[in-house]
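Q: What would this chain look like folded?
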Amino acid sequence: MKTNKIKFGISYADTGSPLHALNGITKFILFMGWVTMVLITFDLRVICGLILVGFGLLKLSRVPFVTYKPLMIGTTSVLLMNALFMYLIAPQQGVEYMGSKTVLVAMAGDYSITTETLFYLLTVTLKYFSMFPIALVFVFTTHPTEFSASLNKLGVPYRIAYAVSLTLRYLPEVTKDFVNIMHAQQARGVDISKNAPVLTRIKNVAKILGPLIFSSLDRADVISSAMTLRGFGRNNKRSWYSLKPMAKADFMVLAIIASVLILGFVNRYQSVQLFWYPF
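A: My prediction, written as structure tokens:
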């Protein structure tokens, strides 16, 4: 039986790019500022600009495209399905937001396809997609321990910050366990390929998830016991080996983030309509 090969590269990758040299606090604020900008704007021009800048930063990170290509395909597929469901649930939502109605394809009931609806779905889909590249940039260029140190520096309790670090650090390990268990089950005749019926595949996937959950719980128990034996959490404060000082480049990036956010809030406040619609 031919086994499925799964490649998962969504973890820290030390490529030595200029983004890796930035402080973890700077990259965290960049990520949060980016998300804020996406949430406050419904201007397609701004959203497209964010996507272009995001992929530019992703290229600057020097991470090969093949590493995150499967995730990008999966994300795009999910967003397209989300757009379809949005149309099925509220087919005239775009007409209500744009204040006009231009029918392209007449259909029964309220399901006529209009220019306004297509523009609305395009804007919302790209709005969600614009967070994809910056999320990858943050994960690829920020070491989990450095990120935890940055969170602690911003005032987050170090116990919570360290929990975040462990989560980011062991996600690739969980993925490796999933692949190993899947290959072991396939060697035993468990079929999860496209040749098997859907219900059979779902049942067989459960045979993979069960051992994966128990192995993850076992790993968590081992880590918890090791941390308890070393006295983790006994003191109110702790030091961080990987904490980097802020440099000039960090302050420059923070100034750019603040400027862009101010312009974004001003643009949102001055906009007459929620959505920018040129037609």
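The radius of gyration is 23 Å.
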